[in-house]
Amino acid sequence: MKKFTPYLFVVVVAVIVGGIFYFQPKQTDTAGEEAVSTEYRNEQYAFSFTHPSEMEVRIREEANRQTDYLGLPVDFFISLRDVEREAKPLNIAFFYAAPGLTVDAFKTALEASDPASVKVTSTEDVEINGLKMTKVINTTALGADKQHYLFDRNGQTVIISVFLTEEPNFEPVLQSLKAL
């Protein structure tokens, strides 16, 4: 019987090790799965958009919303941030609203913010999901162009200011914008 003890030991170990590998959770390839999106709705300014799960909408506290942007009095109501790419949240776009702001007044304020390096290079009327807006592109001191989108909602002009180099990351959000 002593001859079978080492064999019995090997069999028991093999069964245990085999069981450990057999009952491990199966890894699945998620490359083909769709990304999860979240919808943001703003009833005050009557628009919505969806954003990927790695981004968050940070709603500004009421006490910190009224500010100046480009010397214009605005309601800085949300920021869109990527919360996974860096150790700290990374800003993608800021959303402001200003009563009755025209595209021409915005362009004037933009260029006056830094006359040496900021010049509006183009404006283009675009429509996404029935929402009519104006895309404004300007130069910057850093040499990269900056994009803004303006649209009117409920007597307010909503301004979306996209951070430099974040245009590709903002594009899916932009394409999901719609009026409520």
Name of the CATH superfamily: Mog1/PsbP, alpha/beta/alpha sandwich
Overall CATH architecture: 3-Layer(aba) Sandwich
What is the string of helix and strand elements? HEEEEEEHEEEEHE
Class from secondary-structure proportions? alpha+beta
Coarse morphology:
globular
Largest sheet: 8 strands, antiparallel
Mean pLDDT: 86
Low-pLDDT windows of residues: 17-32
How far the N terminus sits from the C terminus, by CA atoms, comes to 82 Å
* CATH-derived topology: Protein Transport Mog1p, Chain A
Q: Count up the domains.
A: 1
- Please tally the helical runs, counting DSSP H or I stretches of 4 or more residues: 3
Specify Rg, calculated over alpha carbons. 26 Å
Output the CATH class name. Answer: Alpha Beta
The number of distinct β-strands equals 11
Strand content: 35-45%
Helix content class: 10-25%
Account of the 3D structure:
With 180 residues, the protein is of the alpha+beta class. It has one domain (37-179): Protein Transport Mog1p, Chain A (3-Layer(aba) Sandwich). It contains 3 helices and 11 strands, in the order H-E-E-E-E-E-E-H-E-E-E-E-H-E. It has helices at residues 4-22, 103-112, 167-176; strands at residues 37-42, 47-52, 55-59, 66-69, 72-82, 90-99, 120-128, 131-138, 146-153, 156-162, 178-179. Strands 3, 4, 5, 6, 7, 8, 9 and 10 form an 8-stranded antiparallel sheet that branches. Mean pLDDT is 86; it is low at 17-32.
